[in-house]
Amino acid sequence: MTRISVKVDGTTYQDEVEPRLLLIHYLRDRLGLTGTPIGCDTSNCGACTVDLDGVSVKSCSVLAVQADGGEVTTVQGLARDGEWTELQKAFHEKHGLQCGYCTPGMLMAARDLLRENPHPSSDEVRHALEGNLCRCTGYQNIVRAVLAASGQEVTA
Amino acid sequence: MIPPAFEYARPASVDEAVRTLAEAGEEAKVLAGGQSLLPLLRLRLAFPELVVDVGRIPELRGVREDGDTLVIGAMTTHHDVVTDPLVRRHAGLLAAATATVADPAVRHRGTLGGSLAHADPAGDLPAVILALGGELVAQGPRGRRAVAAGDFFVDYLQSALEPDELLVEVRLPKADGWGFHYEKFHPVAQSWATVGVAALVRRDDGHIAEARIGLTNMGATPLRATAAEAALTGAGGTESVARAVESAAEGTHPAQDTAASPEYREHLARVLTRRAVLAAAGMG
Amino acid sequence: MTDQAVQSEVGRARPRKEDARLITGQTNWTDNISVNGLLHLAILRSPMAHARIERVDVSPALERPGVVAAFSGRDLDGLGSLPCAWPVTEDIVLPDHPPIAVDEVRYAGDPVAVVVARDRYAAADALEAIEVDYEPLPPVLDLEAALAEGSPLVHSDKGTNRSYVWPLKTGEDFDSVRRRAEVTVKRRYVHQRLIPNAMEPRAVVVTPLAASGEYTLYSATQIPHILRIMLAVVTGIPEHKLRVIAPDVGGGFGSKLQVYGEEAIALAVARRIGRPVKWTESRSEGYLATHHGRGMIQDVEVAAMRDGRLLGLKVDLLTDMGAYLMLVTPGIPILGAFMYPAIYKMDSYDFTCTGVFTTRTPTDAYRGAGRPEATYAIERIMDELAAEVGLDPVELRRRNWIGHEEFPYTTIAGLTYDSGNYEAATGKALALFEYDKLRAEQADRTARGDSVRLGIGVSTYTEMCGLAPSRVLRDLRYAAGGWEAATIRMLPTGKVEVVTGTSPHGQGHVTSWSQIAADVLGVPFEDVEVVHGDTKAAPQGMDTYGSRSLVVGGAAVHHAAQKVVAKARKIAAHLLEASEQDLDFADGVFSVKGSPEARKTIQEVAFETFTSHDLPDGMEPTINAEHLVDPDNFSYPHGTHLCAVEVDTETGQTKIRSYVCVDDVGRVVNPMIVEGQVHGGLAQGIAQALFEEAVYDDEGNLVTGTMADYLVPSAADLPEFVTERTETPATSNPLGVKGVGEAGTIASTPAVVNAIVDALRPLGVHDVRMPCTPERVWRAVREARS
User: Does this model's pTM top 0.90?
Assistant: First the structure.
């Protein structure tokens, strides 16, 4: 067992963990932060995307011990005092989700994109989200939502 | 799926890492960014007794110049490679190819050294380092040694690193003045390259003075298209480039898998080499 | 329609009520559920396609830390066969399907043993300790070879790999129309196997109350109601002691329309050990264990006249059932049987479907279920016929389709299409697509011999959805009805609960049903909540599949709300001292004709029933109402899809340049949700055309066993779609709606492949097998040129 200290959505946790424990299982099974789901075992789907030390990562491909001393933000830490972020609002208003399973990862990946590129083109949005799979939306409304959250005009 | 159990070490320095590896013998695995290793562990395709996490060793990160050489720490992430001004200036081919690796989240964790040490011929970066004529510097109990890229990739998923050696840095001769292009052909955006072609071209008076071609996924290791490189010397137009690249697949042994047959890969190697060279030479 | 409220909600693009928890991570996926003492169940699966089980020893697993129990198939005897509810013929070969294999495994992934441990890591480790000896048996993989004399058998006791032969012959004899035809075109099309890939992997949690023999089962399922009945039969747990909950469910696309072995195993194990258990599949496990879709060889022949007029259609199908018949496996191609003639008039139809067992994961419903296969075959061969008779493919369709003035129209397959307007949808689509301009560019590229060709694909589809009239289901030998239930509960404070028997998993029923109820009741949208997916809270229903929910379940909500209004009217009349006939009802307010100040809101009436202080004599103190709808007919969405594809003839790479669709799904409750359904459907249909295939090797192992190998497209792989609608209301339900969940998937696959073939036809290419990978396109070009 290895001792780790991780700050998640503003709260610092100290735990003894097996080295093999995946960050996603640490979040879900140990901390009860089930807002971030698991969708695959090869890091292709991106459903488990969280922010680790300021950048998006796939929490199924990071060991909890690798996050030791780090700061994690999950979908559950986005809204402040119940106030949704622009991205969350845009996903709602543009119907950027259906079943919602990919949504936490999409939000975290889109957030990462807008941090680096505040006014992306539609093509840039599509490429920035290429590691996040959605089976419901055909992506069109997700792209619209990200563009809208960046303050750009979105047709339809 | 769930990784098998393993012991974990997180050395703070290269020396400590090398000592740890030396003590562990063959049962240790180095954990760099983990973007290849973690999926392998989760699918239970690897069963290391010890995982040595070298992700927290500061000296392994970053990019610096050393005269005519660009030195990139093995643990520099793909994201940092893509955005680094020195890499963009002196090894634009590497920046361009690295930007096509996987997806943004994977590029935040995955590292240059990890990709190279993994020695997957379907990975984009081995062929690029080969084309750039890079050297890979390993450190072990017997000290440091530099291995030319052409000698580093030994076989499928097998590098020249000894079990007690750690890849510490990649040294690239500055490719200032060379035109470059990485042509990646893949069925969907996040899949591996069916075939990739890394092209570097130096032009002289409207002709190709020298071309260096690295091929991704055309055999058990990344390969240089040496016959095409030779034929390209002196080529001066699209017609002559097209003729020269007919030999691009010579000496390759591509695999059969769900993405493509060997025959199709050989065809792609020729077409993509032409496109990459023309783009690199500014003739496309 | 009666004197109801103004239709203010239906037709509005309401952002969804469902979103709040989904975008903040306050979700309740089955794998999120945790209870004290929860144990984790893991399943050991067969590593080979076909083998006799010689020995299973689970005892070494019991030695592992944290392991509570372990069972082989034999240890869990007492479980019945997993059900097939659709034995399509009287003499169908219907093998037993043990939830966990006992003597023989018949596909790679067949469950062999289970362990139960204190956490998922311990359970995964313990699986490796179980010892199994297999005696390999020959795999059965090729559909035609499987039917040949002397083929190895999937089920040796059955003596054949043929499950059933289902014919449908209508109109003039096909041989007769073939003789008088001026043109015949015959083609073979192949539908690859597809993996549905709902983003949420399947999961099951069972919490037992051992003392009273009561069980609650949470499952990532589309069908909590059907599942409860079937699991009661399989496990012997009495139906009234079993509660099934479908919590948040992350997509299904048919893959969660199933009664799975793991659900029965989890119940059996929880019953045996008296502890709560959870099983969650990993993605790669799901690729083996969750049913697949499609998997069909189609021999299709059309007979026509030189002017393009169709005379008849002959269809012979071989369909891959996989190793077992699951819930509706045999019925999937039969759902398509009626759709091959599509929107076209003809004199003869000759259809035969043969179901074949193979040693692969069972197939069953996948988005569209039989209808994409049918639409693909007819829309592909219509393009071949157009080329043969030298007509523009749109013109050929125009010469054969049912004119808008001909509805209702009974097709050669025997369905009565109640409404439609193919001219309108096609006209709109052609204009949006700039069809003539693209044809001109195509001709130009062909003339120049451009290495990048342009192709245009058209698909004028229809489908049957809104499953289903129960009597029709009887005639098709389906074991259940096709009705749907809704209950409206008017709460004392004026709030409304709509209880629905549909079970949404991404479709937005909470929002759309709120809109329907709000309109009829005249209450604010926000005052309505929708209850679903729990057999205790919403006890009656037929669940969600086949684009049925709005057409049948939405109609039930509408009718139930009307019943509420009718009951409320009696009370309002009594309170306002007026006769019922003298009351107007609009926007939720009863008022006396001529004296509008005398008024009662329906929400006030609800409170009156709560106090019951002043109700009419003999009046039951409630205005709650229930309604069950059993539809008289299917509904028939239709539309025209146009796709332009650029094909790089040098590499075989294809790129969708534009995609336009005009769908007619009848009246639209929420245009934003409808558009989203179309987008998602398009993505899946395009994925079949271009990317996805479950590939098996010669031993019967799934080669595309992870998401790294099975190519689900991302945002970067798909184009921007132009989606528009025409609106020809359905006549078979009061809302005029038709269903939209599958339309995009059904229509898009042939549109894309038609475009690719159209681009290459001048080079001599007549077909490219799906998925049209770059290598397949390149080979097609090369073969045509040589």
Answer: yes
